[in-house]
Amino acid sequence: MAYTILIADDEKEIRDLLRLYLEKDGYQVLEAENGIAAVALLEKEEIDMALLDIMMPELDGYQVLKRIRESSNIPVMILSAKNQDSDKILGLDLGADDYLSKPFNPMEAMARINSNIRRFYSLGAKSKELKQLKVKDLRLDTESCLVYKNDEPIDLTSVEYKLLRLFMENPGKVYTKQQVYENVWGEEYAVADNNIMVCISRLRAKLSEDNGAYIRTIRGLGYRMEK
């Protein structure tokens, strides 16, 4: 999965340098040359990390950081020629995750970016996830843990919810019984039992499912959410 990084800096040379290294590592890159443009991109695009220069026209990096923290906790790294301790402390107090002084070594910048992405998304600080999962006429809200079919709520048990979320996060992917059990029940799958089959049967009934319209049994393999 490619992560999207926003570079907000009024120096084109800095943006070009960072883009070169970021794209080499497989990141998608968006650029803004001032604070207003950065805020517009943050509101419009799904951005996974922001690199903010402090001294930008229109809105400075501190103001953009404040806007970000009003609605998001994505990783933010300050890039600035202002290298006084007071500047760093202010940036961190406003919610920045890291602070890199200019001029900087691009290899160090990449190491810090990779570290922030890994810590935030891969090590449990926050999984990269959509707030709304949609498949066909089903909608699952990951924040409220509610499920809707044609905008009508469906009452699910916690296990049924976890089952449906697992399938809706990866429609078209076949899950073995072992994978389903370990993801939903959180325990090692030691012996075959009918818990999975019973729970999926109940889930299908609540979805008013006919002939595997949502969750299809793949004989000899497992289960798959139909796209």
Report on this structure.
The strands form three sheets. The chain has a five-stranded parallel β-sheet, sandwiched between helices. Strands 6-7-8-9 form a four-stranded antiparallel β-sheet, with helices on one face. The chain has a three-stranded antiparallel β-sheet with strand order 10-12-11. Helix 6 (158-169) crosses helix 8 (195-206). It folds into two domains: 4-122, Response regulator (Rossmann fold, 3-Layer(aba) Sandwich), CATH 3.40.50; 132-225, Arc Repressor Mutant, subunit A (Orthogonal Bundle). The chain has 227 residues and is of the alpha/beta class. The radius of gyration is 22 Å and the shape is elongated. The chain has helices at residues 12-24, 35-44, 61-69, 85-93, 106-122, 158-169, 177-184, 195-206; strands at 4-8, 28-32, 49-53, 76-80, 98-101, 132-135, 138-141, 146-149, 152-154, 174-175, 215-218, 222-225. The two termini are 19 Å apart. Helix 4 links the parallel strand 4 (76-80) and strand 5. The protein is built from eight helices and twelve strands.
In short:
It comes from Petralouisia muris. The protein has 227 residues and is α/β, with parallel strands linked by helices. It is built from 8 helices and 12 strands.
